[in-house]
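If you are new to this repository, start here. Below is one unmodified record pulled from the training split, so you can see the exact layout before writing a loader.
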Amino acid sequence: MNARLIASSALASVLAMGALSVAHAAEGKEKEKCFGIAKAGTNDCANLSGSHSCAGQNKTAMAADEWNYVAKGSCAKMGGKSEDEAKAMIAKK
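And here is the target side for that same chain:
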């Protein structure tokens, strides 16, 4: 029984180390906030207007004050706006 427990623990440790390596690789890529591209329920965190403070709480798709993290330099290609551009759009309303 102890040998089985040790083997299971060792396997779990190896799998966990592999998962950590993948997570660190993803963290190394630069990201930026991209406003106006989040689909309903898929925002990454609090919005600019302050109506909520958590991820996944946006009710409207592509709202100017909602954002997602994207690879740096890809926001404009996706039709999104920077934080300053989003604030300017919201101020006009």
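Two things worth knowing about this chain: The CA atoms of residues 29 and 56 lie 23 Å apart. Helices lie at 2-27, 83-92.
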